[in-house]
Amino acid sequence: MYDKLIDHIHQNTPGPGIDKQIIAEYFTPKCYGKKEHFLKQGYICRLAGFVIEGCSRNYMLSTEGKEVNIGFNFENWWIGDVCSFVNQTPSLVNTQFLENTTLLTITAKNHLDLLNKSQYFREYTNKLRSKATLASVQNLSGLSESAKTRYRVLLEKYPKIQQRVSQKHIASFLQITPEALCRLRKSEIS
Length: 190
Hints:
The protein is an alpha+beta fold. Helices cover 49% and strands 22% of the residues. It has helices spanning 2-12, 20-26, 82-87, 108-117, 119-142, 147-157, 161-164, 167-174, 178-189, and strands at residues 28-32, 37-39, 47-53, 56-61, 67-73, 78-79, 94-97, 101-107. The model has no long low-confidence stretch (mean pLDDT 90). It comes from Maribacter polysiphoniae. This is CRP-like cAMP-binding protein.
């Protein structure tokens, strides 16, 4: 289980690597059930998690109380609200599991200790944060695109999303109705 995280660290950061014993010391395996929440809006993000197996969605509540999906998380991804986790402030997002999911979790204290202990892990974390910032900017710039273009980009980014995520959640992410998504899917097939 720890090997997946170690491989991810090595793939994203050149250098000496990180010892499995250090990862086992700082990370705890946890299993979550489908529909269970990892994080709720308004609460402090006390854990960050690396997805070993499973899938989740990030969503926000609109002023009308409607759930609006803002992202999905699959294997080899990190979950949690970075701002809430680092600053220990209330989260702006919810994270809910769409499948039974296994994570390697780390507390904010352990994360800080590991950053101070390992220059290599610190470089890895900085690289991931840079990638996350770029992805956020790209997601925001994509909002001005047509629904058809956003759908194509989504399928390119997540090729197996339709097998793992309900059409309702995909439609919410694309900010269209499920019926409009159905029409888009039919037009892509023909």
